[in-house]
Amino acid sequence: QVQLVESGGGLVQAGGSLSLSCAASGRTFSSRAMAWFRQAPGKEREFVAAISGRDGTYYADSVKGRFTISRDNAVSTMYLQMNSLKPEDTAVYYCASRSLYSGGDYMETYTYAYWGQGTQVTVSS
Predict the structure, then answer these.
(1) pLDDT digits (tens, 9 = 90+) for 56-103
(2) Predicted local distance difference test score (pLDDT) of residue 28
(3) How far, in Å, are 33, 38, 61, 116 from residue 101 at the CA level?
(4) How far apart are the first and last CA of the chain?
(5) β-strands 34-39, 91-97: how paired?
(6) Which of 7, 24, 27, 33 has the fewest Cβ atoms within 10 Å of its own Cβ atom?
(7) How are beta strands 77-82 and 18-24 bridged, if at all?
(8) Vertex 65, ends 63 and 70: CA angle to 5°?
(9) DSSP string spanning the chain?
(10) What is the pLDDT of residues 4-62, one digit of tens each?
(11) Model confidence over 93-120: pLDDT tens digits?
(12) CA distance 24 to 7
């Protein structure tokens, strides 16, 4: 029912910037909490940032001050602006969406019902 499509990944040198987008289908985008997760080779998927239906934002300690999450309800799109990128940011980045009226810890993968297929971000040193 809800489909998510990420875009904007690519290759960038350390210290550079990238902006990711997540386009969502459906008619209730503004009511859903959404998030970005990432997964590096050989590691578990980890929380990056989340934004609530009321525009509250939450960040992993590793990206605070460098990444900014936002959403544009008029076009049903979520964004992740990534600045001062480090090699350890290299991963596949996934867009996630909760079902309507769901709750829980924003950093837990199981609280999200829908996932995109991911976009690769590679940061060279």
Answers:
(1) 999 999 999 999 999 999 999 999 999 999 999 999 999 999 998 888
(2) 86
(3) 9, 24, 26, 20
(4) 40
(5) antiparallel
(6) 27
(7) antiparallel
(8) 80
(9) ---EEEE--EEEETT--EEEEEEE-SS-GGGS-EEEEEE-TTS--EEEEEE-TT--EEE-TTTTTTEEEEEEGGGTEEEEEE-S--GGG-EEEEEEEPPTT--S-TT-GGG--EE---EEEEEE-
(10) 999 999 999 999 999 999 999 977 888 899 999 999 999 999 999 999 988 899 999 99
(11) 999 999 988 889 999 999 999 999 999 9
(12) 12
Q: How many CB atoms lie within 10 A of CB 13?
A: 10
Neighbours of 80 (CB within 10 A): 25
